[in-house]
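Handout, page 2. Input:
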Amino acid sequence: MNNWIETKCNNRVHGTTQQVPSELFTKEEVITLKPLPDTAFTIPNVGTRLVYHDCHVYIDYSYYSVPYEYVGKEVNIEVTNSLVRISYQAREIALHKRSDKKGSFVTVEAHYPKYKNILSTEYQEHYFTKMNEIGSYAVQFFMGLLDDNPHSWQRTASGILALVKEYDPKVIDLACKRALLFKVFSYSVVKNICKQGTYNLPTDMYSGGIQ
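Output:
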């Protein structure tokens, strides 16, 4: 095929231009070509994510912050080898360097509301770290708990952390996920979900509330 193109097409006078294509390319077109880039073009991975109560989205085992006003909203993500770009309704709202460590948090402090820094004290940070050891849903539950009950959250958080003495952390994490779906931030609810084994049941089975 290439030989036919070279001998039959590129090296004979073209019927329309009345020029030889190979000669035209050498004289006029070569000088307009630009060098190829040093690195290959990367096609980004795209998708959507829900912004958690802690002002973060979960991407490839890491967490990236988003301005707090987008909590609960679905945002668009664009991930390359080096960057994470987050947008809402075609407008970029966050840009992060991509993390290479699983479970890491890439956070811009300005993304949190000014009137409450959710990790403003070492005390809260201690609980945050412990909940993160249980799982990502436990972290979301904790952030929601801080928002729902900012002055008396410790007892609930301590109770959930104590559940690791009775249940596998994965079970507790799934129980927190189920509680989150109903926006109920209660230790007794999470404990009952673990005890009754309802953490894996479809949510549409219970239209009346938490089971």
